[in-house]
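ARCHIVE CARD
SHELF: 3
SLOT: left
DATA:
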Amino acid sequence: MSYTQLTREQRYQIYSLLKMGINQSQIAKNIGVHKSTISRELRRNKGLRGYRPKQAHQKALERRDKAKQRISKTEWELIDQKIKKDWSPEQITNKFRSLYGIRISHEWIYQHIREDKQQGGELYQHLRHPKKYRKRAGNGDQRGKIPNKTSIEERPEEAENRERIGDWEADTIIGKGKNGAVVTLVDRKSRFLKMGLVERRTKEAVKEKIIHLLSTYPVHTLTFDNGKEFAAHEEIAEALNANVYFAHPYASWERGTNENTNGLIRQYIPKGTDFTKLTSEDMSFIENRLNYRPRKCIEFDQPMLFLKSHCCT
């Protein structure tokens, strides 16, 4: 069984699933790799403080770069020849192993093609879909750029490890026909929920709603996805005296607490609901139902009571 090279986003997903107590076999199924890949990843890339995705990715890159040095200049020239004959990286990987005994990952070859393109080379034109060719493992969010973002990789350990009250994850749930939205905010440690309606999912409306919902609660950090409704993050951070971080694009597991809570909210607001018919009273009703529901992840405590017992403000 060959070892699948993992992306940075997959390593963050592994970390999140491990924190949830998911076993290696289930983790492998969740991210679409063989269980031996997960086993080897944890064995090779753990640090003294356990498995941490940023450190694991750095270790893997260093190991890969060291291994790539074993491929000589002459061998890279031979690889270039095959690319120019329209061989795919996968075809080169397999044939070079059987014909020449050269072991090289197809991902290395894709990286080599990327670097060649950045330097003005034309190797990428020999790929099957050169116009669609892009950096693998996610090359940025296509939903629009948000200026001055700070990556979730820089979020402090206290937030990462759920050590305190006041580290929030945020999201929006969209109504039928995109008419209206619900802003949801969940505290990572207590699972305490705040939610509120906005008529339009604009950055100004979402900013004002977040500030209003959290104005009486401790706020150390907020973690957003890359939706443009969070583009006013700097104003939110200033108003709440907090630090704001952004998950990687399309990595919903990095905000798993919020994603799971949104799933619970759907019990009361199923898909297809006309949000224009919802009221602030509906929001309060759902909040109370979920905040007083015992939760297994906090040893069947209730989020509202857990928050009160752990919060000193």
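SLOT: right
DATA:
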Amino acid sequence: MPEDFSHLSDEERLKAENEFMKMKLMLEKGAQFSMEDDLDLPAETENEFLKHLIEFETQYDERKIIRVFDKIGQPTHFTPVREIPDDEIDKAWNELAGYLHGYGISLDACSPNISVRESYRFTTEELFGHEMEDMDMPGMMHGFIYDEFHPDPVYDNTRAATDDCINYILQKEPIEWTHHFQKENLRLNGHYPLTIEELKSITGRFKSAYDELETDEIISESCSLKDNTCLVNGTYALSATIGTESYSLTGRWTVVFEKEEASGNWYITEVIIEGISF
């Protein structure tokens, strides 16, 4: 710290250093601080935070790329996955995950279909060779997600069909989140071709016909993949209210996905919901 704050009390010195570091961050990094940032925050805590922030910005500006294997000290003691018996794989993975954690690295998987053995195999055979930013900060973790390297379309499409499609269509609130849908040429029951806005309009008319819509259950039963087409099937139960009258709407549903060759992403192209006239 170039400024001399030695003539100040410890509390005054910390506050002066904090103001200096804030000014430095604002001038050099475009940071913004408000008066609320200072409320009920001890000067010592703020001082540590600002120091970590400056250190992070410094490392970010000077960041280097390094292989995960080099980052963790080039270990040689991890047994190849093919040599680990089934009754020892859990222990082997726990040891490997703990070792990675010691270097601020973690691996998680969204899909429940990823086994412990596959996590171990992926880490030692693929992740070790992956490049990452060489940054070290107290408490900082570099998190990797298995699914970003090896997507699981059965899990992803089933979740998207259930949570981000059928649930959105059947709930009372209007559809807003449509990133899983194809932008045009959509099919909803007998309506085709539809844009996303037309899909919203049609489902909106269905929703507005009822005073209340309450989803009792949405269940996915199967997911089938063939080439670039994916079908997710399930059932639903919906309680609808008009005035004092209540209705139970039930039936089967199907959501069709098509894989876009260029990006490899899956998009919803058709939705069939039995028992509902849109």
